[in-house]
Amino acid sequence: MATANLSLQQAIDQRPLSWLQIRVILLCWLVNLLDGFDLLAISFAAPAISSEWQLTPEALGIVFSSGLAGMTAGSLLLGPMADRIGRRRMIIVATLFLGVATLATSAAASLWSLLTLRFITGLAIGGLLPSLNTLVAEYSPDRRRNFAVSIMHLGFPVGGILGGALAAIIIPEHGWQSIFVVAGALTLIMVPLLVVGLPESLPFLQRQKTPAANLTAEKICTQMDIDWSSIEPSSTTESIGAVSQILRPPWLSPSVALWGCFFFGYLALYFLINWIPTILTNAGMSTGSAIGAGIAINIGGGIGMLTLGWLSATRAIRPMISVSFIISAGLMALLGQNLLSVNGLLLLTGITGFFGLGGLIGLYSVAARFYPDYNRASGVGLAIGAGRFGAILGPLIGGILIGMDWQMANYFLLLAIPLVLAGLIIHRVNDVGIEPPKQ
User: Which distant-in-sequence residues (6+ apart) come within 8 Å of 245 by Cβ?
Assistant: First the structure.
């Protein structure tokens, strides 16, 4: 038997990407694509629902925020649970619940049933994201981790793009319910693919220290051309206290700064993502063009995610996130002036998404690198949970201000300020790679 002389991450870093690692990234990307499709379906269906049910802007804002409230609860409650039960199991179970809840949304007949089902949808997505982010980070070599995480998160805007394109075709013909039928069915099809193709987290298996876990880990490593017997054993056996460790020094102060970045970034950008089709429709733009703006912000965001992830291989990621957020704030304020032609607004919306969503997804890479494997899902889950509070407030505040007949320029300017704050706070996050407390 070979002598143990490498950490698990060192062994992964020394090998080229295997098909198994590519498969992990691809499956997590597909799940996140369906997350985006399922969550953002409500924004594309909102004009039709609002018209059919005669909803006020305030009520529509609550509908948007109900899914985000579920995501907050899921990130805070289910995210840390993945450190105990495993990332793979959490992803499979949450995907199943996501598909069922999205499909059931098509049968919603009242505001309360819609709110309940959107909350359950958000709960499932909230449980998914920390595990998806963590699993991709753990299967990626260090030199490609930021880019791999960016690719995984690219699935979300791609889901929004596909959902918007499909919504523009099928909602006028078949009603708003049709988009939820398609989204739910596709998500349920994903479940057996995950059961067959998604491996468990290697660090999680390593901590179990059981014959069954070691056998599973050895099989996975064989597919990656890694000798499991040469890997140093984990110094921890389980993640008990993972959350409590994060809530005390040396983790607390930089974690609070990271939570602030997520909170302010989500607040501004989820206002924009959820409301832009409805705002532009009310401003006189055709429904098709308004949905096109929702698609444009996701296209721009997807390109921004990949660009930032690629550049971060050779450049410090935090300064790039800071600059991206501040530029996005300026563009968002300009967007609120509504001075451009339809094509100009679509282009400006896409560029705003490029910098804003690109910076936001960069925070996931920072979080994945910041926490060690034994509390990574907990740390990422708490950070995302903090962001979701902002995501809840953004659409709610937008609905209130629109209902108060604020000028578009004024509430866009107000809701751009959190992006500036996020761009400044990111510098308060200490250097990544803090050594964990001694066990």
Answer: 251, 375, 436, 437
- Six-digit token pair at 70? 């579920």
Give the model confidence (pLDDT) of 217-260 as tens digits. Answer: 999 999 998 888 888 876 654 444 556 677 777 778 888 899 99
| Cβ(199)–Cβ(220) below 8 Å | yes
Q: How confident is the model at residue 178 (pLDDT cuts 50, 70, 90)?
A: very high
List, for residues 39-56, the tens digit of each pLDDT value. Answer: 778 877 888 888 888 888
| Collapsed DSSP state (helix, strand, coil) of residue 231 | strand
DSSP state of 375: G
What are 231's strand-pairing partners? 6
Report the SS3 class of residue 166: helix
End-to-end CA distance of the chain: 28
Summarised one tens digit per residue, pLDDT across range 90-149 is 999 999 999 999 999 999 888 899 999 999 998 999 899 889 988 998 899 888 888 888
List domains and CATH numbers for the chain: 8-428 (1.20.1250.20)
Count of CB atoms within 10 A of residue 37's CB? 29
Q: Please compute, for residue 381, the number of CA atoms within 13 A of its CA located in the half-sphere on the CB side.
A: 31
Strands (E), 142-195: none
- 39 exposure class (CB count in 10 Å sphere: 0-12, 13-18, 19+): buried
Give the percent of the chain with pLDDT over 70. 94
For residue 57, give the H/E element and its range: helix 57-73
Structure token digits, residue 110: 């009242």
pLDDT for residue 280: 78
Buried b (16+ CB within 10 A) or exposed e, 342-380: eeebbebbbbbbbbbbbbbbbbbbbbbbbbbbbbbbbbb
Please determine, for residue 303, whether its predicted confidence score (pLDDT) is greater than 80.
Answer: yes
- CA–CA distance, 118 with 182 (Å, rounded to integer): 16
Contact 346, 293 (CB under 8 A): yes
Taking residues 411-439, what's their average pLDDT? 74
Alpha carbon 111 to its chain's center: 26
- The CA dihedral of 425, 125, 370, 387, to the nearest 10 degrees, is 10
202: number of Cβ within 10 Å: 26
Could you say which DSSP state residue 106 is in?
T
